[in-house]
Write a structure and sequence with these properties.
Blueprint lengths: L2 H17 L14 H15 L8 H27 L27 E5 L12 E5 L3
Helix pairs in contact: 1-2, 2-3
InterPro entries: MADF-dom
Protein name: MADF domain-containing protein
Pfam families: MADF_DNA_bdg (PF10545)
């Protein structure tokens, strides 16, 4: 299979993923609809079968997680390079060819509050810790 055909398939895969809000838009009502999510996963399985004939829902979920993880790593590098106060010429340029295609995910990884399970001096106090929600 040509590299170009594989890249086109991944681009189409990302476009389908973007159009299926039930898979990534946390605040969407559809996000909690199992039937809609299953139907969206079926679309993605069919698209991925173009480059991997043994694709299943679990393969699709892993693919999505890999794409999102790579995107977050590159985004972190961009943010860190802009924080250093370096000039515009020194800002990190993402190496991922699909980086801009995944920008719709920017506001989806939001911090959430959680309780610490570490004991404190006051048994009734609860420590708030900010964690990144990773889906």
């Amino acid at each position: 299979m040509s590299r170009e055909k594989e890249s086109q398939c991944i681009e189409d895969f990302i476009n389908i993923y973007r159009s299926e809000h039930c898979l990534w838009k946390i605040k969407s009502r559809e996000y909690h609809d199992k039937c809609k999510r299953d139907a969206a996963y079926k679309l993605l399985v069919e698209k991925l079968k173009e480059i991997d004939s043994s694709a299943t829902k679990s393969v699709v979920v892993k693919k999505i997680n890999n794409l999102r993880s790579s995107y977050r790593k590159e985004l972190k590098k961009v943010k860190e390079s802009t924080r250093t106060g370096s000039g515009a010429d020194d800002v990190y340029q993402p190496k991922l060819w699909y980086f801009n295609m995944l920008s719709f995910l920017d506001d989806q990884d939001t911090p959430r509050n959680s309780r610490s399970n570490i004991e404190s001096d006051d048994e009734n106090s609860v420590s708030e810790v900010s964690l990144i929600e990773i889906k």
